[in-house]
Write a structure and sequence with these properties.
By secondary structure, this protein is of the alpha/beta class. Helices cover 42% and strands 17% of the residues.
Protein backbone atom coordinates (compact mmCIF):
# COMPACT_ATOMS: atom_id res chain seq x y z
CA UNK A 1 0.00 0.00 0.00
CA UNK A 2 1.22 3.50 -0.89
CA UNK A 3 1.80 5.52 2.26
CA UNK A 4 2.86 8.90 0.84
CA UNK A 5 1.11 10.97 -1.81
CA UNK A 6 1.60 14.44 -3.30
CA UNK A 7 -0.56 16.73 -5.41
CA UNK A 8 -0.25 20.30 -6.64
CA UNK A 9 2.61 22.58 -7.59
CA UNK A 10 5.17 23.88 -5.14
CA UNK A 11 6.14 27.54 -5.36
CA UNK A 12 3.44 28.49 -7.89
CA UNK A 13 1.25 31.49 -7.09
CA UNK A 14 -2.42 30.74 -6.42
CA UNK A 15 -1.52 27.07 -5.96
CA UNK A 16 -0.28 24.76 -3.25
CA UNK A 17 1.46 21.44 -2.79
CA UNK A 18 -0.19 18.91 -0.51
CA UNK A 19 1.76 15.98 0.91
CA UNK A 20 -0.14 13.27 2.79
CA UNK A 21 1.43 10.37 4.64
CA UNK A 22 -0.15 7.52 6.57
CA UNK A 23 1.06 7.45 10.17
CA UNK A 24 -1.32 4.96 11.69
CA UNK A 25 -1.81 7.23 14.70
CA UNK A 26 -5.22 7.82 16.22
CA UNK A 27 -5.41 11.48 15.23
CA UNK A 28 -4.67 13.48 12.12
CA UNK A 29 -1.84 15.99 12.03
CA UNK A 30 -1.91 19.13 9.87
CA UNK A 31 1.18 21.25 9.17
CA UNK A 32 0.52 24.41 7.22
CA UNK A 33 2.95 26.83 5.60
CA UNK A 34 1.16 29.67 3.87
CA UNK A 35 1.99 33.11 2.53
CA UNK A 36 -1.45 34.18 3.74
CA UNK A 37 -1.19 32.51 7.14
CA UNK A 38 -2.17 35.59 9.11
CA UNK A 39 -5.38 36.20 7.19
CA UNK A 40 -6.48 32.72 6.15
CA UNK A 41 -4.48 30.18 8.17
CA UNK A 42 -7.41 29.23 10.41
CA UNK A 43 -9.85 28.88 7.52
CA UNK A 44 -7.41 26.64 5.62
CA UNK A 45 -6.99 24.52 8.74
CA UNK A 46 -10.78 24.17 9.04
CA UNK A 47 -11.07 23.25 5.38
CA UNK A 48 -8.56 20.42 5.74
CA UNK A 49 -10.28 19.18 8.89
CA UNK A 50 -13.65 19.22 7.11
CA UNK A 51 -12.27 17.21 4.19
CA UNK A 52 -10.88 14.53 6.50
CA UNK A 53 -14.16 14.46 8.39
CA UNK A 54 -16.07 14.18 5.13
CA UNK A 55 -14.09 11.07 4.20
CA UNK A 56 -13.92 9.79 7.80
CA UNK A 57 -10.14 9.38 7.60
CA UNK A 58 -7.74 9.13 10.55
CA UNK A 59 -4.04 8.54 11.14
CA UNK A 60 -2.82 10.94 8.46
CA UNK A 61 -0.17 13.64 8.38
CA UNK A 62 -0.96 16.48 6.00
CA UNK A 63 1.68 19.01 5.01
CA UNK A 64 0.63 21.92 2.84
CA UNK A 65 2.85 24.51 1.21
CA UNK A 66 0.43 27.26 0.18
CA UNK A 67 1.16 30.15 -2.18
CA UNK A 68 -2.19 31.89 -1.88
CA UNK A 69 -4.39 29.16 -3.33
CA UNK A 70 -8.14 29.65 -3.18
CA UNK A 71 -10.33 27.20 -1.28
CA UNK A 72 -11.39 25.25 -4.36
CA UNK A 73 -7.74 24.72 -5.32
CA UNK A 74 -6.71 23.53 -1.86
CA UNK A 75 -9.71 21.20 -1.75
CA UNK A 76 -8.84 19.76 -5.17
CA UNK A 77 -5.19 19.21 -4.28
CA UNK A 78 -6.09 17.52 -0.99
CA UNK A 79 -8.70 15.27 -2.59
CA UNK A 80 -6.30 14.33 -5.39
CA UNK A 81 -3.62 13.30 -2.90
CA UNK A 82 -6.14 11.29 -0.89
CA UNK A 83 -7.26 9.50 -4.06
CA UNK A 84 -3.71 8.25 -4.52
CA UNK A 85 -3.91 6.59 -1.10
CA UNK A 86 -7.53 5.50 -0.81
CA UNK A 87 -10.38 4.28 -3.01
CA UNK A 88 -12.69 7.22 -2.35
CA UNK A 89 -16.30 6.66 -3.34
CA UNK A 90 -17.43 10.29 -3.28
CA UNK A 91 -16.17 13.73 -4.20
CA UNK A 92 -15.56 16.70 -1.93
CA UNK A 93 -17.19 19.58 -3.77
CA UNK A 94 -16.14 23.14 -2.89
CA UNK A 95 -18.57 24.36 -0.25
CA UNK A 96 -18.30 27.96 -1.47
CA UNK A 97 -19.14 27.12 -5.06
CA UNK A 98 -22.24 28.65 -6.58
CA UNK A 99 -22.05 27.56 -10.21
CA UNK A 100 -24.34 29.04 -12.83
CA UNK A 101 -25.59 25.99 -14.70
CA UNK A 102 -26.95 27.12 -18.06
CA UNK A 103 -27.38 25.59 -21.48
CA UNK A 104 -25.59 26.97 -24.54
CA UNK A 105 -27.01 26.99 -28.06
CA UNK A 106 -25.74 24.51 -30.59
CA UNK A 107 -24.94 27.25 -33.10
CA UNK A 108 -23.58 29.89 -30.73
CA UNK A 109 -20.36 31.69 -31.68
CA UNK A 110 -17.23 29.65 -31.05
CA UNK A 111 -14.83 31.89 -32.98
CA UNK A 112 -12.21 31.98 -30.23
CA UNK A 113 -11.49 29.10 -27.87
CA UNK A 114 -8.80 29.74 -25.25
CA UNK A 115 -6.82 26.68 -24.13
CA UNK A 116 -5.71 26.65 -20.48
CA UNK A 117 -3.57 23.89 -18.92
CA UNK A 118 -5.82 21.89 -16.62
CA UNK A 119 -3.28 21.69 -13.81
CA UNK A 120 -2.45 25.41 -13.63
CA UNK A 121 -5.01 27.29 -11.51
CA UNK A 122 -3.09 30.59 -11.71
CA UNK A 123 -3.88 30.73 -15.44
CA UNK A 124 -7.59 30.02 -14.93
CA UNK A 125 -8.50 32.69 -12.40
CA UNK A 126 -8.95 35.71 -14.68
CA UNK A 127 -9.17 34.09 -18.11
CA UNK A 128 -12.77 35.14 -18.69
CA UNK A 129 -11.99 38.87 -18.60
CA UNK A 130 -10.32 38.50 -22.00
CA UNK A 131 -13.74 37.58 -23.45
CA UNK A 132 -13.05 34.43 -25.44
CA UNK A 133 -16.08 32.62 -26.82
CA UNK A 134 -14.99 29.49 -25.01
CA UNK A 135 -12.52 28.56 -22.27
CA UNK A 136 -10.99 25.11 -22.68
CA UNK A 137 -9.69 23.52 -19.50
CA UNK A 138 -7.26 21.08 -21.03
CA UNK A 139 -6.57 17.64 -19.58
CA UNK A 140 -4.64 16.30 -22.56
CA UNK A 141 -1.42 17.60 -24.09
CA UNK A 142 -0.78 20.44 -21.65
CA UNK A 143 -0.81 18.14 -18.60
CA UNK A 144 2.09 15.84 -17.71
CA UNK A 145 1.17 12.13 -17.68
CA UNK A 146 1.77 11.81 -13.93
CA UNK A 147 -0.46 14.82 -13.19
CA UNK A 148 -3.56 13.95 -15.22
CA UNK A 149 -5.62 12.44 -12.40
CA UNK A 150 -5.10 15.42 -10.09
CA UNK A 151 -5.73 17.84 -12.96
CA UNK A 152 -9.17 16.30 -13.50
CA UNK A 153 -10.09 17.04 -9.87
CA UNK A 154 -8.84 20.60 -10.24
CA UNK A 155 -10.80 21.12 -13.47
CA UNK A 156 -13.98 19.83 -11.81
CA UNK A 157 -13.58 22.35 -8.98
CA UNK A 158 -12.73 25.15 -11.43
CA UNK A 159 -15.93 24.49 -13.37
CA UNK A 160 -17.87 24.74 -10.13
CA UNK A 161 -16.11 27.80 -8.74
CA UNK A 162 -14.92 30.18 -11.45
CA UNK A 163 -16.91 32.89 -13.16
CA UNK A 164 -16.69 32.11 -16.87
CA UNK A 165 -18.75 35.21 -17.74
CA UNK A 166 -20.00 34.79 -21.32
CA UNK A 167 -17.47 32.11 -22.26
CA UNK A 168 -18.67 28.58 -22.91
CA UNK A 169 -17.25 26.10 -20.38
CA UNK A 170 -15.23 23.54 -22.32
CA UNK A 171 -13.05 20.60 -21.30
CA UNK A 172 -10.63 18.74 -23.55
CA UNK A 173 -10.47 15.22 -22.21
CA UNK A 174 -7.71 12.73 -22.95
CA UNK A 175 -7.74 10.34 -25.85
CA UNK A 176 -10.05 7.39 -25.28
CA UNK A 177 -10.20 5.24 -23.23
CA UNK A 178 -8.42 7.45 -20.65
CA UNK A 179 -10.90 10.19 -21.46
CA UNK A 180 -13.71 8.20 -19.86
CA UNK A 181 -11.99 8.68 -16.49
CA UNK A 182 -11.90 12.42 -17.12
CA UNK A 183 -15.63 12.45 -17.86
CA UNK A 184 -16.33 10.51 -14.67
CA UNK A 185 -14.63 13.26 -12.69
CA UNK A 186 -15.75 16.46 -14.45
CA UNK A 187 -19.32 15.76 -15.51
CA UNK A 188 -20.72 16.44 -12.04
CA UNK A 189 -19.62 20.06 -12.58
CA UNK A 190 -21.63 20.26 -15.84
CA UNK A 191 -19.24 21.38 -18.59
CA UNK A 192 -21.08 22.76 -21.58
CA UNK A 193 -18.85 21.24 -24.26
CA UNK A 194 -16.39 18.36 -24.40
CA UNK A 195 -13.53 18.27 -26.89
CA UNK A 196 -12.60 14.77 -28.03
CA UNK A 197 -8.95 14.69 -29.18
CA UNK A 198 -7.42 12.41 -31.80
CA UNK A 199 -10.81 11.28 -33.02
CA UNK A 200 -10.54 8.85 -35.93
CA UNK A 201 -13.87 7.03 -36.10
CA UNK A 202 -17.56 7.73 -35.63
CA UNK A 203 -17.70 4.94 -33.04
CA UNK A 204 -15.52 7.05 -30.73
CA UNK A 205 -18.11 9.82 -30.88
CA UNK A 206 -20.90 7.38 -30.11
CA UNK A 207 -19.00 5.83 -27.20
CA UNK A 208 -18.22 9.26 -25.76
CA UNK A 209 -21.83 10.43 -26.02
CA UNK A 210 -23.10 7.20 -24.46
CA UNK A 211 -20.80 7.79 -21.51
CA UNK A 212 -21.81 11.45 -21.26
CA UNK A 213 -25.51 10.57 -21.38
CA UNK A 214 -25.03 7.95 -18.67
CA UNK A 215 -23.36 10.55 -16.46
CA UNK A 216 -26.00 13.16 -17.27
CA UNK A 217 -28.64 10.75 -16.02
CA UNK A 218 -26.58 9.94 -12.92
CA UNK A 219 -26.12 13.60 -12.01
CA UNK A 220 -29.59 14.65 -13.24
CA UNK A 221 -28.21 17.06 -15.80
CA UNK A 222 -31.01 18.35 -17.99
CA UNK A 223 -29.20 20.67 -20.38
CA UNK A 224 -27.29 19.27 -23.36
CA UNK A 225 -23.56 18.71 -23.28
CA UNK A 226 -22.08 19.36 -26.71
CA UNK A 227 -19.19 17.56 -28.37
CA UNK A 228 -16.39 18.82 -30.62
CA UNK A 229 -14.17 16.08 -32.10
CA UNK A 230 -10.61 17.08 -32.98
CA UNK A 231 -9.22 15.49 -36.15
CA UNK A 232 -5.47 14.92 -35.85
CA UNK A 233 -4.55 12.06 -38.18
CA UNK A 234 -4.81 10.90 -41.77
CA UNK A 235 -7.38 8.29 -40.72
CA UNK A 236 -9.44 10.92 -38.94
CA UNK A 237 -9.48 13.07 -42.08
CA UNK A 238 -10.66 10.11 -44.14
CA UNK A 239 -13.57 9.57 -41.71
CA UNK A 240 -14.37 13.25 -41.16
CA UNK A 241 -17.89 13.16 -42.63
CA UNK A 242 -18.93 10.08 -40.64
CA UNK A 243 -17.54 11.68 -37.47
CA UNK A 244 -19.34 14.96 -38.16
CA UNK A 245 -22.74 13.31 -38.51
CA UNK A 246 -22.30 10.66 -35.82
CA UNK A 247 -24.39 12.44 -33.17
CA UNK A 248 -26.74 15.45 -32.94
CA UNK A 249 -24.57 16.59 -30.02
CA UNK A 250 -21.63 17.30 -32.35
CA UNK A 251 -21.62 21.09 -32.80
CA UNK A 252 -18.38 21.37 -34.73
CA UNK A 253 -15.06 19.78 -35.57
CA UNK A 254 -11.56 21.11 -35.12
CA UNK A 255 -8.33 20.13 -36.76
CA UNK A 256 -5.05 19.59 -34.90
CA UNK A 257 -2.27 20.28 -37.37
CA UNK A 258 0.77 19.46 -35.23
CA UNK A 259 -0.29 15.85 -34.81
CA UNK A 260 -1.69 15.64 -38.34
CA UNK A 261 1.56 16.74 -40.01
CA UNK A 262 3.51 14.43 -37.71
CA UNK A 263 1.25 11.59 -38.85
CA UNK A 264 2.06 12.46 -42.47
CA UNK A 265 5.75 12.70 -41.68
CA UNK A 266 6.05 16.29 -42.92
CA UNK A 267 6.84 19.66 -41.39
CA UNK A 268 4.10 22.20 -40.71
CA UNK A 269 4.78 25.38 -42.70
CA UNK A 270 3.31 28.90 -42.60
CA UNK A 271 1.95 28.45 -46.12
CA UNK A 272 0.01 25.34 -45.10
CA UNK A 273 0.21 23.48 -48.40
CA UNK A 274 0.94 20.22 -46.57
CA UNK A 275 -2.42 20.42 -44.75
CA UNK A 276 -4.59 22.00 -47.45
CA UNK A 277 -6.34 18.72 -48.28
CA UNK A 278 -7.04 17.94 -44.63
CA UNK A 279 -8.35 21.43 -43.86
CA UNK A 280 -10.61 21.37 -46.91
CA UNK A 281 -11.89 17.93 -46.00
CA UNK A 282 -12.75 19.03 -42.45
CA UNK A 283 -14.50 22.19 -43.65
CA UNK A 284 -16.42 20.29 -46.34
CA UNK A 285 -17.58 17.64 -43.86
CA UNK A 286 -18.74 20.31 -41.42
CA UNK A 287 -20.60 22.30 -44.06
CA UNK A 288 -22.25 19.14 -45.41
CA UNK A 289 -23.64 18.34 -41.96
CA UNK A 290 -24.33 21.94 -40.92
CA UNK A 291 -21.90 22.26 -38.00
CA UNK A 292 -19.00 24.62 -37.27
CA UNK A 293 -15.52 24.19 -38.71
CA UNK A 294 -12.70 25.22 -36.36
CA UNK A 295 -9.09 25.75 -37.35
CA UNK A 296 -5.99 24.73 -35.39
CA UNK A 297 -4.16 26.99 -32.96
CA UNK A 298 -1.42 29.38 -34.13
CA UNK A 299 1.49 28.49 -31.89
CA UNK A 300 3.67 31.64 -32.08
CA UNK A 301 1.93 33.92 -29.60
CA UNK A 302 4.34 36.81 -30.32
CA UNK A 303 3.73 36.84 -34.09
CA UNK A 304 0.60 38.97 -34.48
CA UNK A 305 1.15 39.53 -38.20
CA UNK A 306 1.60 35.82 -38.79
CA UNK A 307 -1.64 35.15 -36.93
CA UNK A 308 -3.50 37.71 -39.06
CA UNK A 309 -2.21 36.14 -42.26
CA UNK A 310 -3.13 32.69 -40.97
CA UNK A 311 -6.69 33.85 -40.25
CA UNK A 312 -7.08 35.24 -43.77
CA UNK A 313 -6.21 31.83 -45.24
CA UNK A 314 -8.34 30.06 -42.65
CA UNK A 315 -11.39 32.18 -43.38
CA UNK A 316 -10.94 31.73 -47.14
CA UNK A 317 -11.00 27.94 -46.64
CA UNK A 318 -14.29 28.19 -44.75
CA UNK A 319 -13.20 27.90 -41.12
CA UNK A 320 -15.35 29.89 -38.70
CA UNK A 321 -12.91 30.21 -35.80
CA UNK A 322 -9.83 28.76 -34.19
CA UNK A 323 -8.26 27.79 -30.92
CA UNK A 324 -5.71 30.01 -29.18
CA UNK A 325 -3.14 29.53 -26.45
CA UNK A 326 -2.71 33.11 -25.20
CA UNK A 327 -5.22 35.87 -24.36
CA UNK A 328 -3.38 38.34 -26.63
CA UNK A 329 -4.57 36.32 -29.64
CA UNK A 330 -8.29 36.66 -28.85
CA UNK A 331 -8.94 40.17 -30.14
CA UNK A 332 -7.01 39.44 -33.35
CA UNK A 333 -9.05 36.29 -33.91
CA UNK A 334 -12.36 38.08 -33.32
CA UNK A 335 -11.46 40.86 -35.73
CA UNK A 336 -10.04 38.51 -38.34
CA UNK A 337 -13.08 36.24 -38.53
CA UNK A 338 -15.64 39.03 -38.23
CA UNK A 339 -17.60 39.93 -41.36
CA UNK A 340 -16.20 42.86 -43.30
CA UNK A 341 -18.19 46.04 -43.89
CA UNK A 342 -19.07 45.09 -47.46
CA UNK A 343 -20.31 41.68 -46.29
CA UNK A 344 -22.48 43.32 -43.64
CA UNK A 345 -23.99 45.78 -46.12
CA UNK A 346 -24.83 43.04 -48.61
CA UNK A 347 -26.23 40.77 -45.89
CA UNK A 348 -28.40 43.59 -44.54
CA UNK A 349 -29.93 44.15 -47.99
CA UNK A 350 -30.64 40.42 -48.41
CA UNK A 351 -32.27 40.19 -44.98
CA UNK A 352 -34.40 43.26 -45.67
CA UNK A 353 -35.50 41.85 -49.05
CA UNK A 354 -36.39 38.54 -47.40
CA UNK A 355 -38.43 40.20 -44.67
CA UNK A 356 -40.30 42.29 -47.24
CA UNK A 357 -41.03 39.21 -49.34
CA UNK A 358 -42.40 37.34 -46.32
CA UNK A 359 -44.51 40.34 -45.29
CA UNK A 360 -46.00 40.55 -48.80
CA UNK A 361 -46.68 36.83 -48.95
CA UNK A 362 -44.20 36.17 -51.75
CA UNK A 363 -42.57 32.77 -52.07
CA UNK A 364 -39.38 34.07 -53.67
CA UNK A 365 -36.85 36.65 -52.57
CA UNK A 366 -35.61 39.20 -55.10
CA UNK A 367 -32.73 41.60 -54.71
CA UNK A 368 -32.79 43.91 -57.67
CA UNK A 369 -33.04 41.68 -60.73
CA UNK A 370 -31.63 38.60 -58.98
CA UNK A 371 -33.45 35.82 -57.17
CA UNK A 372 -31.98 34.91 -53.77
CA UNK A 373 -31.98 31.30 -52.58
CA UNK A 374 -32.92 30.45 -49.01
CA UNK A 375 -29.39 29.19 -48.09
CA UNK A 376 -28.09 32.64 -49.10
CA UNK A 377 -30.70 34.26 -46.87
CA UNK A 378 -29.67 32.06 -43.95
CA UNK A 379 -26.02 32.98 -44.45
CA UNK A 380 -26.95 36.66 -44.54
CA UNK A 381 -28.94 36.29 -41.34
CA UNK A 382 -25.96 34.64 -39.69
CA UNK A 383 -23.63 37.42 -40.82
CA UNK A 384 -25.99 40.03 -39.36
CA UNK A 385 -26.27 38.12 -36.08
CA UNK A 386 -22.48 37.86 -35.84
CA UNK A 387 -22.04 41.54 -36.68
CA UNK A 388 -24.53 42.49 -33.99
CA UNK A 389 -22.89 40.24 -31.41
CA UNK A 390 -19.45 41.72 -32.20
CA UNK A 391 -20.73 45.31 -32.05
CA UNK A 392 -20.15 45.91 -35.75
CA UNK A 393 -23.52 47.51 -36.48
CA UNK A 394 -22.61 50.84 -34.92
CA UNK A 395 -21.48 52.22 -38.26
CA UNK A 396 -23.93 50.27 -40.41
CA UNK A 397 -27.62 50.02 -39.59
CA UNK A 398 -29.80 46.97 -40.23
CA UNK A 399 -30.46 48.18 -43.79
CA UNK A 400 -26.80 48.57 -44.62
CA UNK A 401 -26.87 52.36 -44.47
CA UNK A 402 -24.05 54.45 -43.04
Amino acid sequence: MTTIAKAGNSGKRSDCEVTISVTGNEHNEIFLRSKVMTLYGKSIQRLLENILLFYDLHGLRIEIDDQGALEWVIAARTEAALRQLFALNKAYMPVSAHPVITATDKDRDRVSRLYLPGNSPWLMLNAAIHKPDGIILDLEDSVAPGKKAEAAVLVRNALLSLDFMRAEKMVRINQLPLGFNDLDMVMAAVPQLILLPKCEKATQVLQTMQHIDMLRAKHRIEQPVWLMPIIESALGVQHAYEIAKASPAVVGMAIGLEDYTADLGVQRTPQGWESLYACSAIVNACKAVGIQANDAVFADVMDAEGLKANIIRSKMLGFEGMGCIHPRQIAIIHKGYAPEEAEIEKAAKIVTAFEEAVANGHGVVALGSKMVDLPVVKRAQKIMATAKARGLLDKTDDNGNQ
